[in-house]
Amino acid sequence: MIDWHKIQYVLLDMDGTLLDLHFDNHFWQEVLPASYARKRGLDVVTAKAVLEPIFRRREGTLNWYCLDHWTQELNIDIATLKQEAAHLIATHSHVIEFLDALRAAGKRSVLVTNAHPKSLALKLEHTRLDDHLDVIVSAHDIGLPKEDLAFWGHLQRQHPFAAAQTLLIDDNLAVLRAARRYGITYLLAVSRPDSRRPPRDSGEFAALCDFRDILPNR
Predict the structure, then answer these.
(1) 71 with 92, same domain?
(2) How many whole angstroms separate alpha carbon 62 and alpha carbon 119?
(3) Strand 166-169's sheet: what is its strand order?
(4) How confident is the prediction along the chain (218 residues), in pLDDT tens digits per residue?
(5) What are the CA-CA distances from residue 182 to residues 22, 185, 209 (Å)?
(6) What single string gives the DSSP state of each residue in 162-187?
(7) Is the separation of the CB atoms in 190 and 203 below 8 Å?
(8) Backbone Cα Rg of the chain
(9) How many CA atoms are closer than 13 Å to the CA of 200, on its beta-carbon side?
């Protein structure tokens, strides 16, 4: 699937790519609505119906990923609430093996995530991914989400990479399409961002099933 001789830089999404999206899906679809319902005296079904259009209005923007925004919008301490489900934070299979193989092969690994710094810190605390990566970048530090074409120019200026020698792995098709427009050559989607849900359509992109399948030394 990948000719590693042509790749020097590996850009990696976090949620749904390196980490199982089950944690985020459970938090946003179950834990938060339950808290919102308790706070407002609603049943959970009604709370979900109220929250859905509020969430959809922010989708694809940096605020969609911003814990501070949702704390203010919903009057709930999102960062603290996430601790309730933190035991569900987990890497996908063979992720650490893959990251260590990248390092052994001399490839530069960069975590590029839309996750808010507070969410990023929580997940690093539980997974220690930072011990296996060269660079970690939050879109909140750049001020643009990865879905925005301009994000990639800012990223390249701050952390130089050759687009023709770069692989991006991401579960978000909008992000992959923005990266393709920017000129990143090698692009992989993720077939099952959430291990407890069926595979997703990867659109026009090749889909990664297991990091063991693309180890550099294979």
Answers:
(1) no
(2) 14
(3) 135-138, 108-113, 9-12, 166-169, 186-190, 207-208
(4) 799 999 999 999 999 999 999 999 999 999 999 999 999 999 999 999 999 999 999 998 999 999 999 999 999 999 999 998 999 999 999 999 999 999 999 999 999 999 999 999 999 999 999 999 999 999 999 999 999 999 999 999 999 999 999 999 999 999 999 999 999 999 999 999 999 999 999 999 999 999 999 999 75
(5) 30, 9, 25
(6) -GGGEEEE-S-HHHHHHHHHHT--EE
(7) no
(8) 18
(9) 20
Q: Do 114 and 180 belong to one domain?
A: yes
The angle formed by the CA atoms of residues 106, 110 and 114, to the nearest 5 degrees, is: 165
Give the amino acid at 55.
F
Task: Examine the fold and report which residue of 34, 57, 87 is the final residue of a domain before the chain moves on.
Answer: 87
Which CATH number is 117's domain given? Answer: 3.40.50.1000
**Count of CB atoms situated within 10 Å of the CB of 83:** 10
Helix axes 67-74, 44-56, angle to 10 degrees: 130
Q: Are residues 63 and 12 in the same domain?
A: no
